[in-house]
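Hi, here's the filled form for the chain we discussed.

Project: internal
Contact: R.S.
Residues: 122
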Amino acid sequence: MLSIPRVRRRRKMTALARARRRIQGVGPYLSLVLLLAPLLLVEPLKLIALFVAGSGHWLTGTGMIIGAYAVSLLFVERLFKVVKPKLMMLGWFASLWTWFVTLRNKVISSLRGKPLTGDQPR
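And the returned structure, exactly as it came back:
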């Protein structure tokens, strides 16, 4: 019996996949700049939202805070996951990240009462 070869069809990449591939291809310092750019926009927006809420526009301020946290969680977190391998190539960032993860794990283990090791997902 003859075997019929299967033709694999390659789908087109989505826009997010193309963007992720391009971001993964940049160097470590450009990755740091790419990560800092949205942070420098989102974090001051949170403070501005507090001033807006404090001046009597509490509904607008609350909406701004929710929006800023949503952008921070959805965009900056995903971007950090993409650029983290490149950032770990920087010696100072790798040592700072290792120190932070170790401190975080010590605090969490002291609160829970059991030891954690490494950078474990939750």
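Let me know if anything looks off before we file it.
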